[in-house]
Amino acid sequence: MTDFETIRIARDGRGVATLTLTRPDKHNAMSARMIAELTRAAELLGDDDSLRVVVLAAEGRSFCAGGDLEWMRAQMQADRATRIAEATKLAEMLMALDRMPRPLIGRLHGNAFGGGVGLASVCDVAIGAEGVKMGLTETRLGIIPATIGPYVVARMGAARARQVFMSARVFGAQEAVRLGLLARAVPEGDLDAAVEAEVAPYLACAPGAVAAAKALIRTVSPSPDAAMIRATIEALADRWETEEADEGTRAFFERRAPVWAGKE
Fold first, then answer.
1. Helix 149-156 and helix 226-240: axis angle, to 10°?
2. What does the pLDDT read at residue 171?
3. How far is CA 152 from CA 157, 161, 183, in A?
4. Would the pTM of this model clear 0.85, i.e. be above it?
């Protein structure tokens, strides 16, 4: 379809496309380029009426480790306008995947932290390997899971989100199922078969009806709107300007505990 550097799109004769994150050496952490390429991929896949289903997968040991380290370093030094612009690009990418008229099936393995949880949350169904580890780890750095927040809370519901949204606690596949982030967890060797079991029913459905049904969900249930997304972007920009964010991110890059960290 298009040449990409951080992702790959492959499709089969059934109209099933696989969108793969291809930064395995970086645990598929999201860089500015990956965010832009995922946005473009969502547009291309959404506009292709020959496609029936899209699978979101990843190469290497992790699904997505969150934000790329160099991207984070840039945010530390950026001014408010730049931070807002970068958060807006991430928000636009998540919205493009969330509203893509094709069913989006997540195939999760390894680690899914921060933005990786956000990617899982915009999938219509996410299937995880039993060994997957997930977490919203932003508060350890003095920042917040703001831009991904609308989709994460929509997926889990506020009551369940409160259990993991603020604590930065890492949790496993079975808890992710209980929280609603994963539809189910299977042995890693069964992951492809489990994803295929989610894909197969769509091949008997009218693709236009599937797209209309997906759109209808947004009509009949609360979903992130422009005002909510703007509020999360502003909240993140505010947070980046705090002493905690400065201390937390510096401590991370200096490989030391931040001043607020207690003994475990």
1. 120
2. 98
3. 8, 8, 14
4. yes
CATH number for the domain harbouring residue 61: 3.90.226.10
| 89 domain-assigned | yes
pLDDT tens-digit series, residues 73-92: 888 899 999 999 999 999 99
Total tally of structural domains belonging to the chain: 1
- Residue-wise pLDDT for 129-160, tens only, equals 999 999 999 999 999 999 999 999 999 999 99
* Terminal-to-terminal C-alpha distance of the chain: 49
Residue 116 near residue 64, CB atoms below 8 Å? yes
> Is 78 domain-assigned?
yes
Helix-strand-coil split of the chain, %, nearest 5: 50, 15, 35
Confidence at residue 152, expressed as pLDDT on a 0 to 100 scale: 97
Cross-strand partners of 135: 113
**C-alpha count within 13 angstroms, C-beta hemisphere, residue 188:** 9
The amino acid present at 38, given as its one-letter code, is L
For the cut 60, the answer to whether the pLDDT of residue 254 exceeds it is yes
